[in-house]
């Protein structure tokens, strides 16, 4: 049915675009030929959703039309193509080249997406230090000076995850609220990386965001990430919060504390996690196992 709607010239463009997304949602590989046709539709929204769907399905037959869309005059279509291309391109070097071009796009949204997709593509085989290919890592360093705060912070995150300190000042600025981004995922990552990288100059900002102040009217939306960061830094109040909530009556509070203990590699939580492992009725056993596995990677406070 969806495939029929997609190829129907009588159907409203909004319906055809929705049909493309529906085919992506169900992973309809058999609909790839129809989606390839829709990638050339006269309506821009249908082309965008067709390219999006082809990326979600990840079929290599889509490589050529998606590559063409990378150079489309429409930023919206270039955005979808930037997301889709690494997923349909069989040649890693070509995917890397496309993402490098995306980080040179005049549209900061596309530039930022190029960084995101660089992380999805991952490092070269055997590289255990970086999270992206070497050329993309070098590009991230250059983008620390980009006019867009979103792009600068995205670059700093890649560098920090690759063990480099070139963007640490931007992470601290994000924690302090001096560098703002509309990307909640990046803001959350910046806070946690402040802790993971031992950036103690961020502690006052992290404390404010984690626990608020007398004048606070509402909790910071990233309070949990700030507390995790403080746990990385051995902050007594944050550590006490995790250890206390691991024994909380609320299953939800226990779940959040288990996740925090794992993310912060909080060695002080090990004994309680082992107790919880022996009482699977109290929490999600898989989450406990994951937290303990993280503690096995590296100890903390």
**Annotated CATH topology of the domain at 1-90:** Leucine-rich Repeat Variant
Span between termini = 57 Å
CATH superfamily of the domain at 1-90: Leucine-rich Repeat Variant
Point out poorly predicted stretches.
none
Please, how many helices?
A: 18
Note the overall shape. globular
Mind explaining what this structure looks like?
With 301 residues, the protein is mostly helical. Among the domains are: 1-90, Alpha Horseshoe (Leucine-rich Repeat Variant); 234-301, Leucine-rich Repeat Variant, CATH 1.25.10. The protein has 18 helices and no strands. It has helices at 2-6, 13-25, 32-38, 44-57, 63-69, 75-88, 92-102, 108-121, 134-142, 149-161, 168-176, 184-196, 203-211, 223-232, 236-245, 251-263, 270-277, 285-297. The chain is globular and about 65 Å long.
Summarize the structure.
This protein has helices spanning 2-6, 13-25, 32-38, 44-57, 63-69, 75-88, 92-102, 108-121, 134-142, 149-161, 168-176, 184-196, 203-211, 223-232, 236-245, 251-263, 270-277, 285-297.
